Amino acid sequence: LVIDPVWIVIRFLGYHSNKTYIETYGRSIDYLWIHTTVATTFNLCCVSLDRYVAIIHPLRYHDFLTNRRCYLLIASIWFMSLVSPCSRFMVQDITALSTLYLSFTVMTILFPMSIIVFCSLRILKAALAHNNSINPTSSCEQNQYVIRRTKKNYKAAKTVCIIVGLFVVSWLPSLITGFVHYFNTKGSHNENYYTVWTFVETTAFTSSAINPWVYCLRNDEFYEALSRTFRFLKKR
């Protein structure tokens, strides 16, 4: 809702390679995209960690993730996403700016992606093992509860894997482009870079629009929470 409309206007008006634009509005736009990227990737990282603890350590889930810790973690992510882009206002040299972009690429994409992929692989492995160990003929009430919980976790694991797949497809091109551009051109910008980066950014920014729909379709609790927030959504 914040960066996508601004980014679309910039691209259609062709301001991205204009020197006057870069010197005047470029810093503010960079602040916005760094802020939204940090918020997006690290929140996805937290979702993966949450599911990891819930499935790998179900009996200790509420001990690890108390309400206080969850609120503190969420507040910390949004605080970090608002503060970390401020370094953009302190950089003017084009080479130093490219180094800053590369640093943010590693921090906001590579680091969260590594955690998300690791958690997702462990989650999927554990969920598959639990799902295969279910005995559907058992009538024990406690066992039925375990079966329901295991199936729910298995569904959650598949949801996380879908999100991770979308995350990798959306953000990996920008990660590769950032590294290739920095090490091949030593930070100097050219028109070809802006042309390629336009498509890379388009792919990356679509993830923020897709993720909420995936969660709504795959997670009843998420849908209920979204329905309470946005009253115009009809109950399924």
Report on the structure:
The chain is an all-alpha fold and 236 residues long. Helices cover 81% and strands 0% of the residues. It is built from nine helices and no strands. The protein is elongated and about 65 Å long. It starts with a helix and ends in a 7-residue tail after the last helix.
Structural classification: mainly alpha
Treating each run of at least 4 consecutive H or I residues as one helix, how many helices? Answer: 9
Mean pLDDT over the residues: 76
Helical content stands at over 70%
H/E topology pattern: HHHHHHHHH
Number of strands: 0
Radius of gyration: 21 Å
Span between N and C termini?
A: 25 Å
Categorize the overall geometry: elongated
Q: Could you name the ranges where pLDDT drops below 50 across 5 or more consecutive residues?
A: none
Sheet having the most strands: none
Residues in β-strands, percent: under 5%
